[in-house]
Amino acid sequence: MVDVLLQLADDPTLEIKLERHGVKAFTQDMLAGGTESSAVTVEWAISELLKKPKIFKKATEELDRVIGQNRWVQEKDIPNLPYIEAIAKETMRLHPVVPMLVPRLCLEDCKVDGYDIPKGTRVQVSVWTIGRDPTLWDEPEAFKPQRFLEKSIDVKGHDFELLPFGAGRRMCPGYSLGLKVIQASLANLLHGFNWSLPDNMTPEELNMEEIFGLSTPKKFPLTTVVEPRLPSKLCSV
């Protein structure tokens, strides 16, 4: 993406000149947007796991079995961690960072699933609603990562029941990087640390309200007690 922007900045044929400071601004926007969305997703994932200790235990057991106790998780390890991948998918299904996809404009009259869509219609796709549709998901309000172990559903826009990054030519341009960041960050946080709720709080008391807007972060930020679970030599800075 940066290479393309730099090429455009050097293109003398453009009607609107793209200056170098514009390239910098675009790049900063992409980095900031990707960082926030990944952090929100990881926070939701850990929150759900703290409410479901059995699922949390199963995740750490997979990490100990595949990775061991003597190193951190690397990007190349992710394909060998299907349960971690399933947790990431289930989190994005139940708590999509962006509840509404970028609007689409119908360019010509068409019919979709029996509905007449006139030319010029602005179409809004609610990812949040799709992820909780009982006709698509068994127990849609429940956090059940195992559902993604039982059937093959990806997040690349091929399966319309799960569209955290959108679909088609207008899907999130950074979905590949974003997905890897979410998976690797979540895996290392679960592998490297023991997590618990503060002040003798029970899982049932953990607040799971969300703020519904352009994004869906937790209404109350997650507060936890974190302790290292790997050898101290791996945690030194």
Automatic annotation (TrEMBL):
GO biological process terms held by the UniProt record: secondary metabolite biosynthetic process
Keywords: Heme, Iron, Metal-binding, Monooxygenase, Oxidoreductase
Needed cofactors: heme
GO molecular function: heme binding; iron ion binding; monooxygenase activity; oxidoreductase activity, acting on paired donors, with incorporation or reduction of molecular oxygen
Residues binding heme, per UniProt: C172
Matching Pfam families: p450 (PF00067)
InterPro entries from the UniProt entry: Cyt_P450, Cyt_P450_CS, Cyt_P450_E_grp-I, Cyt_P450_sf
Keyword flag Metal-binding: yes
Family statement: Belongs to the cytochrome P450 family.
Protein name per Swiss-Prot or TrEMBL: Uncharacterized protein
Source species of the chain: Solanum bulbocastanum (Wild potato)
